[in-house]
Amino acid sequence: MIAVTRITAKSSTRNLRQKLQLNNYFSSKVPDEPTWVPIDKEKLPKVPELDEATVNHLERLSLVKFNNQAGVERLYKAIEYANQLHMVDTEGVEPLDSVLENRSVYLREDKVTDGNCLKDILQNASLVVEDYFVAPPGNIPLKPVDKKSSK
Amino acid sequence: MVYSNRISLRRLCRLSFLVSRHNRHYSNLSYNPREQEWRSVVGLEIHAQIQSESKLFSGASTKYAGSTNTQVSIFDAAIPGTLPVLNRHIVEAGIRTAAALGCKLSQMSKFDRKHYFYADLPAGYQITQQRHPLARNGKVKYLVYNTDNWNKYSWKTASIIQLQLEQDSGKSLHDADQNRSLIDLNRAGVGLMEIVTAPDFTDGEEASSFVRELVLMLRRLETCSGRMEEGALRVDANISVHRPGEPLGVRTEVKNLNSVKSVGRAIDYEIKRQIGELESGREIVNETRSFDAQSGQTIAMRDKEKLQDYRFMPEPNLLPVFLYDSKSVPMGVDPANVIITDHLLQGLPSSPSKSYERIHDDHKISIRNCVILVNEDGLLKIFDEIVERRDAKALINFLIADFLGVAHARDINLLQCPVPFRHIAEVFDMKTNRYISNDNVTQVLELMFDFPNKTPGEIVKEKELENIQDLEVLQAECEKTLLKHPNVVQRWKVGQQKEKKGRQDPMLKLVNTTMTALNNRANPLVLISIFEKLLSKK
Amino acid sequence: MTYKPYHELRRSLNEGTITCREVVEHYLNVIQQTAHLNIYLSVFTKRAIEKADLLDMKRHKGAPLGKLFGMCISIKDNIAIKEERLTCGSKMLENYTSLFNATVVERLEREDALILGKVNMDEFAMGSSNETSAFGATKNFINEDYVPGGSSGGSAVAVSSGTCMVALGTDTGGSVRQPASFCNVIGLKPTYGRVSRYGLVAFASSFDQIGVLSHSASDAALVSEVISGYDERDSTSSQSVVPSYSIHLDDLNVEIRCLIEAKLEALQSRGATLVPISLPHISYSLATYYILTTAEASSNLARYDGVRYGYRDKEASDLMSMYVQSRNKGFGKEVKRRIMLGTYVLSSGYYDAYFKKAQQVRRLIRDDFMKVFEKVDVVVSPTSPSFPFKFGEKASNPIDMYLADTFTVGVNLAGIPAVSIPAGLGTNGLPVGIQFMGKAYDEQTILNMCHFFETHFIA
């Protein structure tokens, strides 16, 4: 037995079937009209505005930049889209970390089987000094950029 | 510690007035009425490197001080496409430690990612256990003591909130000249236990005493070397102050305290600093600080202007760790995927505080000596084995004053003692029975280590070190001394009319001279009585 | 040489009527002829010919031959091959060379397969059209004005245009099935945990799986059999026994008419909405998917900072600036967008409302599938809600682009296997794929369906 979850266009199904000269008596058990209930946007919580502070905060946490206002708006839209989950009742539902959650992790023996590959490890680094990786010094805070000035 | 051949003051004390070795008078610490207004609250986060061959999630070696970046697997360097595989031994070490600290083991624990960017954190996140740690809710009883005042000791209990497994980070060396950081990832991925305590401490003394107890415990379990100077154990302290009756104050975190002493000093300084700030009308900023051992001060770390958001997320590449005992383990499960805890929880060593209690109660040993006994690796075992039917107090004194000195000078690891314990006991007996004199004890101990296959009795006989028992021989030697040192005799005679004090000097000289002549093969008390007899005749 | 299913080619190889070298040379030739489609990022000309010669010698000596002897395979460029480039379609790793072989590569080579090269993809596997690659888009072989789908667009076109027999791709939300559907080939995504991810550059670790693209169900089954199986180096890989899929491809007793109808209805799939019949939460699968995968991606991509490998901005004077500049220049727009969203949903204050919530809905969706599979063996749907679209058509609104994954993400959320098989061409000449979803570890049934479909419906 096969369950069919389908999508159908609103009206042209029968027309197309006729055009292709198909048997119209067959019922695939798929309703001709979608049964999905559209989400009422009013019922969803409002997405807080992405002000400059939030934008700076996100940039600092993720270490990528928005580059322009359009990027910020895009993110806003994506969050709005994600907001629809609010409509789902998840009372008492345990969050799913992994589909394999009931399996126990494999534990390996405590033996030295790796390492000692200095050349490999350093191979792809663009800057190396005497077997060390090199980075500029840390501990200096980022300066927030005024977003309104760029478009 | 050098033992002279001269009569020590202690020996003479035994002769005449026995003064208690314990100072019974209290010397209270300076009582500052100002500080009575404030309460301080301290909690600790201890990071202990777990002793294992390989790292927590990779097979690279964990040896200390390896050549730069040679103990780094591709996973440790966060090479794209690599995955973590959990080390069984490390989990088992965590389990044993948690049990020894009185914690409740979690039947299921999981791993999480803690995100922040820094050059010594290759993946941009640390794998840790924030939501479901390996164990929770433990209790540790510990002894708070003051090496300046051994009478001021007390028992306290600290609660452990949780014990979790996590990765250590790499090392970042700051090259100020060239304005850069040099990164060595040898340490990245080494297994750590993070032990989080409740804010149960009030000052540096309590916190450092707790850390001492913890280090000892970890060494007994052999789950961590406890070598803070190597970075094997690091302490972060959370400190706040408040006035009695008011809510807890804003806390600061002092990170990376790497010695027991630093723990105490840093915390005490920070408490004083916070009180000072608040009394001056300023506020305490929730920030991270480091401790400068030279100046004894805590210093704000520059890059913590805002609270870090670690964005904890479940680690998707690792499945949960399930713990079972032999009764609860489900059927048909692959043994490579589970840990059965029965054998891990058997035969756990007792805690140091239990040892202190036992020795203090059973043998009425002073706290000071208990502490020395327990803190010296391997010494307690020796004591426990040979104390039966012997005077415990005298034995401890012997071990601490005589035996340890020789062992230390020879760099001997008492955990792998090269001589059988009964030999040590034999030397003690010989001393107690005055078979050998106190002056010869050190020499005999040295010879004992030199000739581990011979009994001390044999050695003493061979080297002719036993006390001469023949009174005639002794008397003859004493008379010789008297003849050689008539001025001393004269002094003695003069002294007799005066107060007693004058008497001891010349006697000391006479006895010491004779002992030297006899190769210390006599009981000085016996010599004294012989001299007294001889001198009274003159 | 027209396409043959592998078992026919193998017969010729065994008989000696053709050599491995000739096969490889043929494919290398096609690769050259299709260079304008921008399929390959690396071509292993020397390596492949050397291996072919070795294999020919092996056969000559009469040594036992592997299951994939002489099969020419191309690999998506986010799967590691030792000493070869591993770009993930990104400027960030443009000059990066892998230090080790992925488990799947080891397994293929052990069975005497020939690897021809690394193929193009959406940057870090994020995309549904192959337009986000830093090295230019790959063109659809069927009509070069149209996208091949993504993120395994390169893999799909590689197979579709005849440059290789089989290609490996990766599927996090449909990235094997959707391009398969757009390119008129078969694309299989195995059960989560079936195939080791060791050597796969992570995008969203609890969703990623390596999948197979091919012209025939038997080829997909055979390669799948070889690459599947437990691997100690991947703690999420399954110890479930891998059946010999290729041997048991049988006819299935099926409602023929239902299939025809389904196949035809796939042609009517323009601009419609999803109807959840037996899967009540399926309409939320896209939002759930995007929250969870962008969160995991923001985490998995945190390692690209330029210190140990990858693009590095050399001018920066302090650590954080260097990180920001390297990542800003090394990553493309789509990757950065997703990292931002992922960071947002994990940040304190939003974690519960978005990430945790999405995890809960994921469980509900998975439970829906499990309930359905108590009653049925296979769930059918179109692979994609639309025909392939033109380049640039969806670039303006990313939400529209995300909607291309509507039917495929549910499968990844639940961790079940699914396969897309060509269901014919539309009146516009563009291909449509039909998707079969199976129970966990039941690749056998869906491959059977494929085989049946193939023998009865494809010319």
UniProtKB/TrEMBL annotation, chain A:
InterPro entries: Asp/Glu-ADT_sf_sub_c, GatC. Its EC number is 6.3.5.-. Allows the formation of correctly charged Gln-tRNA(Gln) through the transamidation of misacylated Glu-tRNA(Gln) in the mitochondria. The reaction takes place in the presence of glutamine and ATP through an activated gamma-phospho-Glu-tRNA(Gln). Keywords: ATP-binding, Ligase, Mitochondrion, Nucleotide-binding, Protein biosynthesis. It comes from Potamilus streckersoni. One of its GO terms (biological process) is regulation of translational fidelity. Belongs to the GatC family. It catalyses: L-glutamyl-tRNA(Gln) + L-glutamine + ATP + H2O = L-glutaminyl-tRNA(Gln) + L-glutamate + ADP + phosphate + H(+). SUPFAM superfamilies: Glu-tRNAGln amidotransferase C subunit. This is Glutamyl-tRNA(Gln) amidotransferase subunit C, mitochondrial. It comes from the Eukaryota. It is an enzyme of class 6 (ligase). GO terms for molecular function: ATP binding; glutaminyl-tRNA synthase (glutamine-hydrolyzing) activity. PANTHER family: GLUTAMYL-TRNA(GLN) AMIDOTRANSFERASE SUBUNIT C, MITOCHONDRIAL (PTHR15004:SF0). Pfam families: GatC (PF02686). It is found in: Mitochondrion. Subunit of the heterotrimeric GatCAB amidotransferase (AdT) complex, composed of A, B and C subunits. One of its GO terms (cellular component) is mitochondrion.
UniProtKB/TrEMBL annotation, chain B:
GO terms for cellular component: glutamyl-tRNA(Gln) amidotransferase complex; mitochondrion. Residues 381-535 form the Asn/Gln amidotransferase domain. Transmembrane segments: none annotated. It is found in: Mitochondrion. GO terms for molecular function: ATP binding; glutaminyl-tRNA synthase (glutamine-hydrolyzing) activity. Its main location: mitochondrion. SUPFAM superfamilies: GatB/YqeY motif, Glutamine synthetase/guanido kinase. InterPro entries: Asn/Gln-tRNA_amidoTrfase_suB/E, Asn/Gln-tRNA_Trfase_suB/E_cat, Asn/Gln_amidotransferase, Asn/Gln_tRNA_amidoTrase-B-like, GatB, Gln-tRNA_amidoTrfase_suB_CS, Gln_synth/guanido_kin_cat_dom. It catalyses: L-glutamyl-tRNA(Gln) + L-glutamine + ATP + H2O = L-glutaminyl-tRNA(Gln) + L-glutamate + ADP + phosphate + H(+). Pfam families: GatB_N, GatB_Yqey. It is an enzyme of class 6 (ligase). It comes from the Eukaryota. Keywords: ATP-binding, Ligase, Mitochondrion, Nucleotide-binding, Protein biosynthesis. The keyword Protein biosynthesis applies. Subunit of the heterotrimeric GatCAB amidotransferase (AdT) complex, composed of A, B and C subunits. Belongs to the GatB/GatE family. GatB subfamily. Allows the formation of correctly charged Gln-tRNA(Gln) through the transamidation of misacylated Glu-tRNA(Gln) in the mitochondria. The reaction takes place in the presence of glutamine and ATP through an activated gamma-phospho-Glu-tRNA(Gln). This is Glutamyl-tRNA(Gln) amidotransferase subunit B, mitochondrial.
From TrEMBL, chain C:
HAMAP family: GatA (MF_00120). It is an enzyme of class 6 (ligase). One of its GO terms (cellular component) is mitochondrion. Subunit of the heterotrimeric GatCAB amidotransferase (AdT) complex, composed of A, B and C subunits. It holds the Pfam family Amidase. Keywords: ATP-binding, Ligase, Mitochondrion, Nucleotide-binding, Protein biosynthesis. Its EC number is 6.3.5.7. It is found in: Mitochondrion. One of its GO terms (molecular function) is glutaminyl-tRNA synthase (glutamine-hydrolyzing) activity. The keyword Ligase applies. Residues 22-447 form the Amidase domain. One of its GO terms (biological process) is glutaminyl-tRNAGln biosynthesis via transamidation. Belongs to the amidase family. GatA subfamily. It comes from Potamilus streckersoni. This is Glutamyl-tRNA(Gln) amidotransferase subunit A, mitochondrial. Allows the formation of correctly charged Gln-tRNA(Gln) through the transamidation of misacylated Glu-tRNA(Gln) in the mitochondria. The reaction takes place in the presence of glutamine and ATP through an activated gamma-phospho-Glu-tRNA(Gln). It comes from the Eukaryota. The active site is at residues 76, 151, 175. It catalyses: L-glutamyl-tRNA(Gln) + L-glutamine + ATP + H2O = L-glutaminyl-tRNA(Gln) + L-glutamate + ADP + phosphate + H(+). The lineage of its organism: Eukaryota, Metazoa, Spiralia, Lophotrochozoa, Mollusca.
